[in-house]
Amino acid sequence: MVDQQNIKLKLSNPQDIVILSHRNPDGDAVGSSIGLARFLQKWKHVVKVIFPSEYPLAFQYLVNEQVQPMIYDLQPQECLDVIKRSSVIFLLDFNALDRIDKMGETVMFSTASKVLIDHHIDPEPIADIVISDTASSSTSELVFLFIQSMGMADRIDQSIGEALLTGIITDTGSFKYSTRGLTYRIAGELKEMGIDDYRIQNHIFNSLEPKNLKLLGHCLANRMVILPEYKAAYIYLTKEDYTLFGISRGDTEGIVNYLLMMKDISLAALITEQPTIIKISLRSKDDINVQQMASLHFNGGGHKNASGGSAYAKLDDVISRFVKVLPNYIKHQTL
């Protein structure tokens, strides 16, 4: 971790603070942002959390009247005005300004102090203070360490702890990947503080609507393609599928992971046809690096075993590109 004295000095007096995270915020983006916001509010700072787009309703349990995230897509001018008024900007769970879309330019030219806290590779020079660790399970883990490094772990209350543990649980897939010993120790400390991990997991994983199960059944029965020669599989969704099942933000979260439940599948993709762009989510087992695939072929990035990207192309073309580049990442299997 970097020297915290400059940050601590900056935060010693009340500030107008903005916390930003990436488009399509996941559990780590939401958890780290809300957890940090509540911690900073204890210092009497005025804190606003802004996401470029809406967050999944599954994480609504983290939101209360003290922290009500703003959504750029719904109130763009208000969000830009808040950024312009801020004296400190925290950038969480992303390390390139294009991840916050049109807000990136405003952040770039802001004179506010900028603090980056993130665990993705190759951070761009977008912040004055950088807390970056690719070995970390999640940005929520780094926020916990950030608070701890300033000697203020005792200020982590129930609401802060719930938010941070949410981020850790979701970004590790319930501790199935991207973990290290420190990850478990932090989770243990949060548990000892009284954070109810069962309640959190129940909120995250047991709050599906009937349409979610119908969508999952459709994906596995009608949209799953297995490529045994490459130990790979993918699921695709068309615009018509989005209309038929009323798919909204967060409804496809976790579907790609079902493909890796097959014992002979080591690389999986979920390819979805959005209104103006094709999105791809990539997951892998063991030493297969889907971050490289996302970066080199799909204008994306992420982690070694969990990444994503996008392309302005036709759905069939993106599927063909995925299949074409598979040999670069998985050796052909003799059947």
Write a structural description.
With 335 residues, the protein is an alpha/beta fold. The chain folds into two domains: 5-205, inorganic pyrophosphatase (n-terminal core) (Alpha-Beta Complex), CATH 3.90.1640.10; 210-328, Diaminopimelate Epimerase, Chain A, domain 1, CATH 3.10.310. The chain contains twelve helices and twelve strands. It has helices spanning 5-10, 27-41, 76-85, 103-109, 139-149, 158-171, 181-192, 197-205, 210-222, 239-244, 290-297, 315-325; strands at 16-20, 46-51, 70-71, 88-92, 113-118, 129-132, 224-227, 232-237, 267-273, 278-284, 301-302, 306-311. The protein has a six-stranded parallel sheet, with helices on both faces. It has a six-stranded mixed sheet with strand order 7-8-9-10-12-11. The longest helix is centred in the first third of the chain and has 15 residues, at 27-41. It is globular. The mean pLDDT is 93.
Strand order of the largest sheet: 3-2-1-4-5-6
Number of helices: 12
Radius of gyration of CA atoms, rounded to a whole number? 20 Å
Q: Name the quaternary structure.
A: single chain
CATH class of the largest domain: Alpha Beta
Q: Which percent bin holds the helix content?
A: 25-40%
Residue stretches low in confidence (pLDDT < 50, at least 5 long) are none
Fourth-level CATH superfamily of the largest domain: inorganic pyrophosphatase (n-terminal core)
